[in-house]
Amino acid sequence: MQLLKSIKQKIEFIKLNPFYGDNIQKHLIPKEYIEKYNVSNLFRTELSGFWRMIYTIKGNQAEIINFILEIIDHPTYDKKFGYKKK
Q1: Sequence-separated (6 or more) residues with CB below 8 Å from residue 65
Q2: pLDDT under 70 in the chain at which residues?
Q3: Is 17 helix (H, G, I), strand (E, B) or coil?
Q4: SS3 content of the chain, % helix, strand, coil (to 5)
Q5: pLDDT tens digits for 68-77?
Q6: In this structure, which long-range contacts are made by residues 71-76, counting pairs with CB atoms below 8 Å and at least 24 apart in sequence?
Q7: 9, 63, 75 from 78: Cα distances, Å
Q8: pLDDT of 64
Q9: Residue 44 DSSP SS3
Q10: What is the pLDDT, as a whole number, of residue 61?
């Protein structure tokens, strides 16, 4: 329930400001997202319980559309983005 509440809260934040999350550097965007979703930008926001919400922004000056691509746990996020445990 806490995770669902956190997701709903972050969606509301993103509706108010599409650039709310942390911008992921282009060279760190997983090839999977580029091939599957044709993304050229990627953002992440932290959720409760160390989960992450990954989203992209599409649109033009008249319309901005955010697409949530994935909600993943922290270990999966680290693996997908190439972060190693110390």
Answers
A1: 57, 58, 59
A2: 61-62, 85-86
A3: coil
A4: 40, 30, 30
A5: 899 999 889 9
A6: 71/7, 71/47, 73/49, 74/50
A7: 23, 32, 5
A8: 75
A9: strand
A10: 66
